[in-house]
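Sample pair:
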Amino acid sequence: MTGGSTGTDTQEARARAEVAEVNAAAGPDPVRLGVLTPLTGPGDATAGELITRGARLGAEHVREHGGALGGRQIAFVLQNDQEGAAAETMQRSCVGGIAKLAVYDRVTAVLGQWHLRTAPYVAEVAEAFGVPLFVENGHNTLTAERRRTVFRTYLSVADRTPMMVEFAVKQDWRRVAVLAANTVFGLMCADTFQEVAERTGADLEFLRFDFDQETTTDVRDQLRRIVEWGPDVLFDSAVVRTNYMVINQAEEVGLLPGVPLMVAFPFPMRSADYWRLAGPAGNHVVWAATPFRPSWPGLTPIGRWFVDRYAARYGSFPPDNALNAFTDVTILARAVELAGSDDRDQVIAALESGTFDTWRGPVRFERGAEHWHHSPPDFMLMQYTEVGQTVDDAVIVHPPEVATGPYERPDRR
C-alpha cells in the first residue's frame, strides 16, 4: 500500500520499510489510513520520515491494545506528497496525492501534512471528498476556516506568536530585527509577529528583510545593516537550513552572540543538531515549545509508552512531528471504535463528540470560536543558557507561572 519511487537508503525507502512492517502485521480487513507526507525533495523528506515513524508506532500501540472494531488493525497507504513536484509544483503533487487516497485507495482518513504551502490545497480537496484530515503543522487558518473534515492537535503560529510578543515587551526590547524566509511559514511567522505587536499596542519598531529560502546562501549584507541599526533582538523566521545560515553569518558580522536571539521554528529542540550546526553563537536562543520533553511530569501512560518505544527503536527522544503523527493515529483508531465503523462520516461525528487520550491528557475537538476542530497543547518559551544543553536542560523562561528560571541575556558573562 504505497505510492511513489524508492531508492536504496533514502528517507523515502526507510519510510516505506516502516509502513511495510505495519501492513505485514495488519491482518485481514484492516482500517486503512492514508499518510500524505514529503518523502523526497523539494519538500522536507526528513520530516516525512519522522512522521511515518510516529504513524508506525501509533499502529503498533493500537495493535498491542486490542485493535479497533473487535480487533481490526491499522494499515497505511503511504503517499509521497512530493511525487512529481520537481517537474510541476508541490501544490499540484499534494492535490493529486489526496485525491488518489480519497478516491482510488478509499482510506478512512489521512494524516501527515507537514508543509504550510501545501496543506490548504490538501484541506480543500479533503473537504470536497469528505475525508477526515489531520494536519501536522501550524498554519494559521487551516482550522480557523471551520471545515468539517480538518482536525489538528498541534499549536498554530497564531497560538504561539502573542506569547513571543508579550515576552519581547517584558524584556523591554523595542527594536526588533527580522530575517524571514519566503516560505509560507517564514512569512506567516514574521507577519503575525508584526500584526500582533500592532494590534496589542506594543511599542516595537521593526527592521525586516525577506529572502528566498531555496536560493539564498548569503545574508551578510542584511545582517550588517541590522548591526548598524542597533537591534534589541534578532527574530530569525527562517526554516532549518537558513536558520543556521542566519546564525552562522550573524556571528561572522558580530551580531551574535551579543544580541538576544529568538527563533520562530523550534529547531533548537533537536539539540544535537543544533549545537553541531549553530555552535556557541546559538547560545541563549529563545523559542516556543510544548511541554513535551523527557523530564515533564505530566506525560500520560500513552505518552510514556510512545517515548519509551521510540527511544528503543530509534535511539533518541522523539521530535514533535513524530509525536503528532502518533497522536493522530491513536485518536483516529479510537474514533473508529467510538463510531462502530470506519465510514468517514461516522468517524467525523465521533471525532466531534468523543474524548481522546493523548500524551498530555484528554483532548476534544469542539466547534469552538477560537479553536475549531483544533486542540492545541500548552506551550511556553524555552532558552538554552549553556552550550551543549539538551532540551531537557533548557530553562522555561515564560510565562511566569510555569517558568523554571529567569531569562538570561547573552551579554551576561
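The chain is about 40% helix and 15% strand.
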